[in-house]
Amino acid sequence: MSNNSARIAVAYHSGYGHTAKQAEAVARGAVGVSGAEAKLVPLDELTDAVWAELDAADAIIFGAPTYMGSPSAVFKTFAEASAAVWADDLRWRDKIAAGFTNSKAMSGDKLNSLIDFSVLAAQHGMIWVGLDIYPGWSASTASIEDLNRLGSWLGAMAQSDSDLSAEQAPPATDLRTAEALGARVAKITLRHVRGAAEIASESDAA
Ligand SMILES: Cc1cc2nc3c(=O)[nH]c(=O)nc-3n(C[C@H](O)[C@H](O)[C@H](O)COP(=O)(O)O)c2cc1C
């Protein structure tokens, strides 16, 4: 990894494909930032390659559907398995972290999933990045097409109607919000990586 580029891993689970669309949008937003690269890392099978991808990343964006008010069990299995990383002297310390979730209800208690991701990041000594977009779709003149229509600060939310396939849901409005989260994480990660490189070169010169 070059000291001037930012490597973003989108670590996600999707049972039926809807959250996978959101994950793709997050990655698309990240790679739209010059100097950033993004990798989709599905968590269905926790192979050595998955852990290697996450270890190599400067930022990890966690994503899962909300099932029964919290991240899906597959994601929770990953979170518990990451205790081995935690035990290894906080191996993910100082990586940037963020999160996204999708569910069928407008609320569906999905804030709880974002809180779960942020606590996971904190336990790993990571640095959480939220969304910096005022809530959309929250005035009489507002539109469903507004960015952040579901009004979350902690991370990106999406909503998928339960009778629509992953080709049709979540809607474009939520995918744009996911892209915005990816872009923000990429920009912050670039700052973080480049700042760390500068500090290292200053201390080498001293
Ligand atoms: C076991 C299970 C539990 C669910 N629990 C919730 C929930 O708590 N809130 C909600 O709004 N939707 C809930 N849903 C709906 C899913 O979040 C929704 O269908 C989502 O689009 C699935 O994403 P995926 O295709 O990536 O798996 C649940 C679905 C399943 C299968």
From TrEMBL:
Transmembrane segments: none annotated. This is Flavodoxin family protein. InterPro entries: Flavodoxin/NO_synth, Flavoprotein-like_sf, FMN_Rdtase-like_dom. SUPFAM superfamilies: Flavoproteins. Residues 8-186 form the Flavodoxin-like domain. Pfam families: FMN_red.
